[in-house]
Amino acid sequence: HLQVKVKIPFGNKYLDAVFSVPEKKPTYGVILTHGAGGDMNFPHLVSLAACLASHGVLCLRFTCKGLNIAYRAKAFKTVVEYLKLSDDHKLSGVFLAGRSMGSRAAASVVRQLSQGDDDDDFVQGLICLSYPLHRPKLQSKLRDEDLLLIRCPVLFVSGSADEMCEKQLLEGVVSKMKAPKKIHWIDKANHGMAVKGRTADDVMEEINAQVFLWLRENTELEHK
Question: Where would I find the KANL3/Tex30 alpha/beta hydrolase-like domain in this sequence (predicted)?
Answer without folding.
Answer: 30-209
